[in-house]
Design a protein that fits this description.
The chain is mainly alpha-helical and 100 residues long. Helix content is 78%, strand content 4%. It has 3 helices and 2 strands; from the N terminus they run E-H-H-E-H. The chain has a two-stranded parallel ribbon with strand order 1-2. The longest helix is centred in the C-terminal third of the chain and has 43 residues. The chain is rod-shaped and about 80 Å long. It starts with a strand and ends with a helix. The mean pLDDT is 90.
Length: 100
């Protein structure tokens, strides 16, 4: 009976994926999601080469998917903040230029 090794960084990718969703409203979710995606690439490649030699692909794949979701939500949040700053900045510039 062959002893299967756990895919490298499977648990770390899962934790980073969860944290990227939880902290996506603070902007750090984007960074955590990208780190999770980078770490998952090696494990996904190893699993593709030899699927019977490793276990933990479910954790790795779930973390990969959550990292994608966290990166997407974090990106949308950053875009929202940029538009918010532009709109508020434009409104304040209009108010102050009209007052003087």
């Amino acid at each position: 009976m062959e002893i299967k090794q756990t895919l490298p960084n499977a648990v770390a990718v899962l934790v980073l994926g969860i944290c990227s969703i939880v902290f996506s409203c603070f902007g750090i979710g984007l960074v955590l999601g990208i780190i999770g995606l980078v770490l998952s690439s090696n494990g996904r490649k190893l699993h593709k080469e030899s699927p019977t030699s490793f276990e933990g692909y479910g954790m790795l794949n779930a973390g990969f998917i959550m990292s994608i979701i966290g990166t997407s939500i974090g990106s949308l949040y950053i875009i929202y903040l940029l538009f918010y700053v532009i709109i508020i900045g434009g409104a304040l510039a209009t108010i102050f230029s009209a007052a003087h």
